[in-house]
Every structure is written in structure tokens, then in C-alpha cells.
Amino acid sequence: MIYAQIDDTGLCFAVSSLSGEVSAPNLIPLASMAATVLGQRWTGTEWVEVAPPEPEPVRTLTKLQFRNRFTFAEKQAIYAAAAVSVDIRIFLDDISVAEEINLDDPATVFGVQTLEAGGLLAAGRAAEILG
Amino acid sequence: MAFDLFGGGGGVKSVQRGTVTFPFSSPGASAAAAIQNVVIAAVDPARSVVEVTSSAKWHSSSTGQMLIGVTGNLLDATSLQLRRGLNATEASIPEAAVVWQVVEYN
Asked: pLDDT of A21-79, one tens digit each?
């Protein structure tokens, strides 16, 4: 006997060829070992496709990925400003020694927003970079 | 000649097999996300062997690509528990399919 096994939401997570008949509310008899029902949802009468979950947004970047969120012109402006601004040098040094850049880290958010407030990034760019 | 694994009458009494999927697992997922329980027809656990095959892979930035180990265990006569060995707390684990087989001997 061949069965699809569903979870509490009706989603099929297993297809099994069993040695005998089994009666269980979460087992749906199948005509064949149709692995295609894996990941589909049982409505009570039929199998329906389930849209794949939206991928989670990436919130942790490598240093290069973070740097690539800035345009070349923005980097030029930031480096030029760092020559005379201790605050900006600290921000750049913090990035250079970080293992990775978390876009939700308050220090990252503050640093990027400060660049925009200081005119080194156009209005709205901080939100784009941190988005 | 039948293979006499348990000193009994020998021979295979039944074979059950199937495929189970482990869903995508986000960082910080509970330990329950690494377990799938499968209903099977009744067997004698003392005379049964579980075989599990997984080709699921996980990519780690520190160790590169590695296979995800999965073990199978009969909880009772009708319950097969599959447990994913990797339960990462800091990384995402892709969806993975695991093939299992329960062989019961006489």
C-alpha cells in the first residue's frame, strides 16, 4: 500500500510504500509512488501546488557585498570626507575590522544614516543601502 | 538459503520504504525542525533494520559543502523517526529529501 503522509496543515512531507494497509488521519492513499505530491497540499479531495516560500531577505553581508551597495562616486565622497572627519574614519575602520556586516546592527544603521545626514549620500540612499 | 540475522526462522518478512522531505530551516529553528516522524505498517522493532540514505548538502562558508547526516530510529512498531544530524543555529539549511527503508526479518 502506498501513502502520502501530511502534516497538520495538509502539506505532504512523506511518500511511503508500506507492507500493509494502515488507517491514520494523516495518511492519504496513493495509486503509485508519486513523489510529485511531496510539497503539495491535500485539500481533502485533491492535491494542489503550494507556492514556494519567499526567500528570506539577506541581512548579513560580507564586507565586499556591503561596500558594493555604495556607488563609486559615493565611495569617493566618503573617503574624501574621512580625511578630515574622525567620525567617518571610525565608521570605515569599524567596517574594515568587522567579520561581517549586519544591516540591522544599530552601529551600521547609525553610520549609514549619518553619511546621508552629512550630505555624502543623496536623500533616500541610506534606506536603499540598508534595505 | 535465507539469511538468519536474529537466530529465528530467517528470511525477510517485509520491506517498507519511502521518501521524506525536511523543510528549509532558518537560523535559530527549533530542534523539532530537524525531526520527521513517519507512520509505517506494524513491524517487530527487535527484528527490523532501518536504512537511511541522504544526499542533502549544506554549504558552510567555513567548511565548504558538506553532507547532512540523517539517522533513522523505530520509536515503536508503527513509528519511524528520522533525525537530521545538522541543526545549525547560525545558518540556513536547504530543503532536503531523505530515502528510508525498514526491513523486517522473520
From this structure: 999 999 999 988 876 888 899 999 999 998 876 766 778 889 999 999 999 999 999 99
Residue pair A22/B39 in contact (Cβ under 8 Å)? The answer is yes
Q: Which helix (H) or strand (E) holds A128?
A: helix A125-130
| Per-residue pLDDT reduced to its tens digit, B6-65 | 555 579 999 999 999 887 766 656 666 678 999 999 999 999 999 998 766 665 555 555
DSSP string, A9-47: TSBEEEEEE-SS----TTEEEESS--GGGTT-EE-SS-E
ipTM of the complex: 0.77
Which residues in chain A have Cβ-Cβ distances shorter than 8 Å to B15? 19
Question: Angle A65-A68-A73 (CA atoms, 0-180°, nearest 5)?
Answer: 160
Closest-CA residue of A relative to B103 is A19
Write out the three cell numbers for B97. 529529501
- Angle at B34 (CA atoms; ends B27, A3), nearest 5 degrees: 130
User: B23 and chain A: CB distance < 8 Å anywhere?
Assistant: yes
The pLDDT assigned to B34 comes to: 78
- Using the Cβ of B42 and the Cβ atoms of chain A, whether some distance falls under 8 Å is answered with yes
